[in-house]
Specification:
By secondary structure, the chain is of the alpha+beta class. The chain has 3 helices and 5 strands. Strands 1-5-4 form a 3-stranded mixed beta sheet, with no helix packed on it. Strands 2-3 form a two-stranded antiparallel ribbon.
Length: about 130
């Protein structure tokens, strides 16, 4: 009888300790009183600059899909560069496995030696 009493009291003590421990567990929340912060509220540094530039419609890090050009002398493919020349690769045909590489210099549009598509180098400053 004494052993049953000892088992019952120890069981109740363990349950009571567990209940007290659970009630004292700190609650962690994923937001503040204002709610979950937006990307603009928690972004810093270059990420914030990129988000602000995207709101203005600019594409400082070439994140958006590039605009498609016809590739003619009147509407050449635009190639941005921070220098005065750049190495360009042209996949002349859709199913072609070989890339035609050539140097593109700033100034007038230049043609691909294989297919004749026109490319023009545009000087672009770094965003940072």
């Amino acid at each position: 009888m004494a052993t049953q009493f000892l088992i019952r009291t120890s069981y109740k003590a363990v349950r009571l300790a567990a209940a007290n421990h659970l009630s004292r567990t700190p609650v962690r929340v994923m937001c503040t009183a204002k709610g979950i912060p937006t990307n603009e509220e928690q972004a810093t540094g270059l990420e914030l600059r990129a988000l602000l530039a995207q709101k203005k419609g600019k594409d400082p890090y070439s994140i958006f899909r590039p605009k498609e050009y016809a590739g003619t002398s009147e509407d050449p493919h635009i190639v941005p560069s921070i220098g005065d020349k750049r190495l360009v690769g042209c996949l002349c045909e859709e199913d072609n496995t070989a890339i035609v590489w050539f140097w593109l210099h700033e100034g007038n549009p230049e043609r691909c030696p294989s297919c004749g598509s026109h490319y023009k180098l545009i000087h672009q400053e770094l965003p940072h």
